[in-house]
Each structure stands twice: as structure tokens, then as C-alpha cells.
Specification:
The chain is of the alpha/beta class. Helix content is 43%, strand content 14%.
């Protein structure tokens, strides 16, 4: 009673994750969800989980159930060095920190870097979970302009010229929410700009391995290693419930991330890290990744084809070569939140895009569509339904 008075000022800046609220609607019977951002359960390598578990118990015994160093389980950090090399990231085991999901790294970065009133530069739109991780540390946000190729380098340059930016947060590859990937030329420009201003950039890369077409683009970390904290996760290529993410960060920042993590959870689950170590080092990830890609590619193609077939001409949408999302934009003035409730009446859910902007009032006419959870037929049917709802609505 009256405990509200006890809340810290910081706590009052926090808000429920609207997507989680939307996902509650999605659990209604018969609802087709294009709303979530979660991997299909069929993408988890269930057929080897039992063997991996036995291997971990046989190989590591009680060590897999013991407290472990904050930085991460040694064999996993070693395996991650090899995993990161093809992404152009030349790291040593000591440079890799394991965290409880990449979300855990985002929160730790917020805690280490943001003082109240500092400015963080983010794309418009950006990953909602990053805003949710940073906002409790009470930053202001600087808006970075984007187009269909992602961040516009000139916008970054202008923002950095104005000064006072603590760090830049980007999802350069198959971005959540737009699916967009920043092309190589722009990446080179971005790398040159952050080097020129000696700025710190957080590269969040959960989707880079999920490529269905085209060729890989080098990570920003590979182009400007001293200025980039690279974050990734095993959530999309192994299993999100294991809560395993990791980062490669410059030494001066890494040291503080470790101290912060000690205070948060001492370390991430030893057993889960041991499973992941065996999954990667045993070659199972390399073997299984094509199955995940083959699962998602036809779903994404089905969604793009359905959008081409059914959506009105006054809409445009991204055509990503990978990831988990497609971003659609309607004509100015069309309110996707209202459309969302109409769509829900017809048993189709998506996420209104306005939630991914740091500035209120932006992105009213945008929507995020996820294609990983439904089958191809359902995707076709639900995009057709959405198109009909749009026609009735406008
Ligand atoms: C861009 C981005 N970053 C981070 C995360 C968090 O992932 P996890 O904490 O499961 O590693 C997600 C999850 O969807 C994401 O899309």
C-alpha cells in the first residue's frame, strides 16, 4: 500500500514492452500472428539436444553445474572465436564476453555508458528492446535518418558534427524492424565517419547468419574494429530459451561490462554455455544453419509474393535478403494502430511500426510483418486478409 512512492525516478521511465502486450492478443484461439519476432520452434535442433546434453554431462561433469567466471565459459568463448572469424571479426578468447542474451549486453552497455541526459544516436526506426534497455538510464535520443538501404551516412555525420553523442546504436544487417541491410559502400562510409570522430558504435547483429539470397556484407566491426562493440546471439541459430548472447568490445569498455555483469547475475548459465560450446565446436551449428535457412526462405518468399499479389499499390515494402521481418509503409495519414484492431477482428496480428521510433508521432503509417512462425499457406491467406482489411478501412 502506497509503495508507488518508493519507486526510483528511473523506474517511472520504464514502460511495458508493447510487443509483449500485443503478443497477448495473439494467443487468442485462431489468431495468425505476423506480430512476434520469435524463431519457429522447428528451427531448434531438437534431434541433437539429448546427445548434446549427454556430451556436456560426460565431458564437463559437475563443472557444467558450478559457478563460472563472469566473462563466460571458456570452451564457448573459444568456439565463438572460430564462429566470428568468417564474419571478419578477428578476436581472441579474452575479448569475448558471454551474456544472458544480446539483451543482457544492451542493458549492461546502458548501465556502463549512459548518464542521465546523455545522447544516444539511433536509427529511425530502431529495435524496441534496445530503447527499452537504454531508457531507464535516462538518455536523450538523436534521430538517425534512414531509407530503404538503412542508415544514411550523411545523417550520421551531421549528428556527430553537432557533438555530444555518447554512442551510436545500429542493427546494420536484416534490421529489426525493417529487414533492411546497409550495403557495403555505406558501411565503408560509416566506418570512415566513426573513425574520423572517434565515435563508439554498437553493432547489434542477431540476424546476419539468416541469409536466404545474395552475398554477405562485411560487419562494421570488421571495417572499424577499434570503434565498434559487436553484439550477437545464439537465439536465432540455436535456441532463444537458452538465453545466450555475446559481445566483442574494446578493452576499456569490456572491463566495465564484466563488473556490471557481476552485479547483475554473476554469470550466464554454465550448463547452457556448455551446450552451446558443444553445438558450435562439434560442427552442429554449421550443419544445422542450412536447415534454418531452408525453413525460413520459402516463408519469406511466400510473404513477398502475397504482398505483390494482394497489397494495394499505394503501399510499399522492404525486400530483405534474410532475417525475420518485412516492413510495409502505407500512404501518409493511414493509422496502423486502428488498422491493427480491425485486423485482429479478422484474426491476423502484426506490429504497428510507430513503436519502433524514439520520437513519438513518427511511423504512424508503418507496420512490421514477421514470417517465421506461420506456414506458407497461412502467410498467403493472412496477407490476403490484411489487404482486404486495408481496402475496407481506407
Ligand atoms: C535487434 C535485436 N537485438 C537483440 C535482440 C535480443 O535477442 P536475445 O536477447 O534473445 O539475444 C533481438 C531479439 O529479437 C533483436 O531483434
Amino acid at each position: 500500500m502506497g509503495f508507488d512512492k518508493l519507486l526510483a525516478d528511473r523506474t517511472k521511465t520504464m514502460d511495458v514492452n508493447v510487443i509483449r502486450e500485443i503478443l497477448k492478443v495473439v494467443s487468442q484461439p485462431g489468431m495468425v500472428s505476423l506480430a512476434g519476432g520469435i524463431p519457429a520452434p522447428e528451427s531448434f535442433p531438437m534431434e541433437i539436444m539429448r546427445d548434446l546434453t549427454s556430451t556436456v554431462i560426460d565431458k564437463y561433469g559437475a563443472k557444467a553445474f558450478q559457478y563460472d567466471p563472469t566473462e563466460g565459459f571458456g570452451p564457448l568463448r573459444e568456439a565463438l572465436v572460430d564462429y566470428l572469424r568468417p564474419k571478419g571479426i578477428q578476436s581472441k578468447m579474452e575479448e569475448i564476453l558471454v551474456a544472458s542474451g544480446s539483451q543482457g549486453v544492451l542493458d549492461a552497455l546502458g548501465k556502463v555508458l549512459i548518464s542521465k541526459g546523455d545522447t544516444v544516436a539511433v536509427e529511425a526506426p530502431t529495435y524496441l528492446g534496445a530503447l527499452q534497455a537504454f531508457t531507464p538510464y535516462e538518455p536523450a535520443y538523436a534521430r538517425l535518418d534512414t531509407d530503404e538501404k538503412g542508415l544514411i551516412p550523411e545523417s550520421l555525420e551531421k549528428v556527430l558534427e553537432r557533438g555530444g553523442i555518447k554512442f551510436i546504436y545500429l542493427v546494420p544487417t536484416f534490421q529489426n524492424p525493417t529487414g533492411r541491410t546497409i550495403p557495403l559502400e555505406r558501411r565503408k562510409d560509416i566506418a570512415a565517419i566513426i573513425s574520423k570522430f572517434n565515435a563508439l558504435l554498437i553493432e547489434d547483429d542477431p540476424y546476419g547468419s539468416l541469409r536466404y539470397r545474395g552475398t554477405d556484407v562485411p560487419t562494421l566491426k570488421s571495417l572499424a574494429p577499434d570503434n565498434v562493440v559487436y553484439i550477437s546471439t545464439l537465439s536465432k541459430v540455436f535456441a532463444p530459451g537458452l538465453r545466450l548472447g555475446f559481445c566483442v568490445a574494446p578493452a576499456q569498455i569490456r572491463k566495465w561490462l564484466v563488473i556490471v555483469k557481476q552485479g547483475t547475475d554473476l554469470h550466464s548459465s554454465t550448463f547452457n554455455q556448455a551446450l552451446a560450446a558443444e553445438y558450435i565446436a562439434g560442427g552442429f551449428l554449421a550443419k544445422h544453419l542450412p536447415n534454418i535457412i531452408n525453413l525460413y526462405r520459402p516463408k519469406q518468399e511466400a510473404m513477398l509474393a502475397a504482398l505483390d499479389n494482394y497489397f494495394p499499390d499505394r503501399f510499399s515494402w522492404s525486400r530483405p535478403e534474410g532475417g525475420m521481418f518485412i516492413w510495409a509503409e502505407g500512404p501518409p495519414g493511414l493509422d496502423m494502430q486502428t488498422l491493427y484492431w480491425k485486423a485482429v477482428e479478422h484474426k491476423v496480428a502484426f506490429v504497428p511500426g510507430k513503436y519502433f521510433y524514439s520520437t513519438p508521432g513518427e511511423g504512424i503509417e508503418t507496420m512490421r510483418l514477421n514470417f517465421t512462425m506461420a506456414d506458407e499457406q497461412t502467410i498467403d491467406r493472412s496477407i490476403k486478409t490484411l489487404a482486404e482489411v486495408i481496402e475496407d478501412f481506407s
